[in-house]
Design brief:
alpha/beta, Rossmann fold, 4 domains, seven-stranded parallel β-sheet, 20 helices, about 40% helix, globular, binds adenosine monophosphate
């Protein structure tokens, strides 16, 4: 175990952000900018238009929110917004406005989220009271522009967040209409998880000499150590700590390094794990060298077997006995994934790389798979029944060892005297029960709901395989929100083409879209045939899935 000095990383202060923002970021436990932030913030602060490729989990929200807040601090505050952020969904509108509030707490930023489904009266009052930043879904923004309740004449910055999602959801015309109402001299920023031709076209039409940002990605699969097994669990945020505990119980790592994104994350997870009986130590950038040394000493001496750390704190650490690396929080870039995972599987040893993924982070996981050319299989979080079975296995193994190795004669008298009264089987059962109980109580935990039904294969999945040959995955723009069931998709496709139900592969129904596997040879025919067809009363986009 050694610690090597790391190169001096970029800090938020290096990016030229004002002190009010730095103090808010420090309070949130952010230790350093993520790659997209490091690239985008200086350009945006400089007033440049930016076109960035970034998925949820990369820190893209702060990448555009901080420069907006930076600009806000110095200017006069008017009644009308100086920034408009367009997002595809109501959830994202709420998340982005919360982020602006958190980062801008010392600047008194006035943020109004506007989205469909909320009474318009409340939004009207909020807009009327004076606002700095509006975060809106395109449909509702167009409504307000029509009513003349959203004034865009003072806009300095427009952000298109998750632009590909907005296009997929049919907001292209709304976006054009909104942008037409904004001042020509505005700064325009576009973030998108993918940059297909349609996004490029928007960039060419509406962005002024944009800087393109694509975070450097590792180039060869060899950079990820070959002997490491990679897998992931999909969990809602609220269940991640419990889920990790279960996984650790089953995996029983010799030593594990668990990555969290912030200092607060490290401290709270360490506390939770210790409360559950694990021997975890925290390591983050807020600790003194002496504290760090003490932690590393405990790990070396084997009195701790889990190290919970931020990326900054773990930089340069080389822990010999490490068997597992866990991404408790998703890494902010593929490069960071490769870097974190490089800690196991060294010198030809086998290792395990585990990632806990929140449903909305599925695109980041796909990116990692694509770039590292490594399949990250999704496992189910162990259930209470799995854990019980696992604990019984341990008891069985301990008994076996004792039968084979120990001198048991001293106990013979107990068994013999009980055997007069009971069947030997019953005596054995009672002894096993006592041995099992002494190894620790069975925790009466509740099962963790499976979150992989959202954007991941599971839940509403039909898993039959097409009989032979290659398959293509088709994206169909209707999902659970429209009440779509697998039989609706099978019915629509088999009704419009000459395919039969048996020709279709797995069907996965997500919140807003579905994925259906069809034979590659017929994929284009299906796309053609489905044009204009209604599924559950709704017309849906059908195209090849990008990944
Ligand atoms: P986003 O990709 O914008 O959805 O951000 C993903 C998560 O990363 C959010 O929970 C942010 O609070 C967090 N985050 C963003 N930037 C940083 C950073 N520099 N350090 C630590 N956490 C961050």
């Amino acid at each position: 175990m050694t610690e090597t000095p790391a190169h001096r990383p970029t800090t938020f202060a290096d990016l030229g952000l004002r002190p009010e923002l730095i103090s808010a970021l420090t309070a949130l436990g952010y230790e350093e900018p993520t790659p997209i932030q490091e690239a985008a913030i200086p350009l945006m602060v400089d007033g440049r238009d930016v076109m960035g490729q970034a998925a949820t989990g990369t820190g893209k929200t702060a990448a555009f929110a901080l420069p907006i807040l930076q600009r806000l601090g110095s200017g006069e505050r008017g009644r009308h917004p100086m920034a408009l952020i367009l997002v595809p969904t109501r959830e994202l509108a709420m998340q982005v406005s919360q982020a602006l509030h958190r980062y801008g707490r010392d600047l008194g930023v006035r943020v109004v989220p506007i989205y469909g489904g909320q009474p318009i009266g409340r939004q009207l009052r909020a807009l009327d009271a004076g606002v700095d930043v509006v975060v809106a879904t395109p449909g509702r923004a167009v409504d307000h522009i029509g009513r003349k309740t959203l004034h865009l004449a003072d806009l300095e910055v427009v952000v298109l967040d998750e632009a590909d999602e907005m296009l997929d959801m049919g907001f292209a015309e709304d976006l054009e209409a909104i942008l037409a109402e904004t001042p020509a001299r505005r700064q325009t920023v576009l973030f998108s998880a993918t940059l297909p031709a349609r996004i490029d076209a928007i960039g060419r039409r509406h962005l002024h000499q944009p800087e393109r940002i694509r975070i450097a990605e590792p180039t060869t699969a060899d950079e990820v150590t070959p002997l490491v097994r990679h897998f992931a669990y999909v969990l809602a945020r609220a269940h991640k700590a419990t889920g990790l505990g279960r996984v650790l119980d089953v995996e029983a790592p010799a030593a594990a390094l668990v990555f969290c994104r912030t200092r607060e994350g490290v401290d709270s997870l360490t506390e939770t794990l210790n409360g559950r009986g694990y021997r975890a130590e925290a390591l983050h950038g807020g600790m003194s060298q002496e504290q760090r040394d003490r932690v590393m000493g405990r790990l070396r001496a084997g009195t701790a077997d889990l190290l919970v750390a931020t990326d900054v704190a773990a930089r340069g650490l080389d822990i010999e006995q490490l068997s597992h690396v866990v991404n408790f929080d998703m890494p902010a870039s593929v490069e960071s994934y490769v870097h974190r995972m490089g800690r196991v599987g060294r010198a030809g040893r086998a290792g395990v790389a585990i990632t806990l993924v929140e449903p909305r982070e599925h695109r980041m996981l796909k990116n990692i798979e694509r770039v590292t050319k490594r399949r990250i299989s999704i496992h189910k979080v162990p259930t209470v029944a799995d854990l019980r079975a696992h604990r019984l296995d341990l008891t069985r193994a301990a008994l076996r060892e004792s039968i084979l190795g120990d001198d048991l004669d001293g106990y013979r008298v107990v068994v013999e005297s009980l055997a007069d009264e009971f069947d030997v089987m019953e005596v054995a059962l009672a002894a096993v029960k006592l041995a099992h109980a002494s190894a620790g109580p069975d925790e009466d935990d509740e099962d963790i709901p499976d979150a992989s039904g959202g954007a991941f294969p599971a839940g509403d999945r039909r898993t039959s395989r097409p009989s032979s040959g290659n398959t293509a995955r088709l994206y169909i723009g209707v999902g659970r929100d429209s009440g779509v069931r697998p039989q609706d998709l099978v019915g629509a496709i088999t009704g419009e083409t000459h395919l039969s139900g048996r020709d279709l592969g797995s069907i996965q129904i997500n919140q807003r879209f579905s994925l259906v596997e069809v034979p590659e040879a017929q994929a284009d025919e299906v796309i053609q045939a489905m044009r204009g067809v209604k599924i559950r009363g709704q017309k849906a986009t059908v195209r090849r899935e990008r990944f």
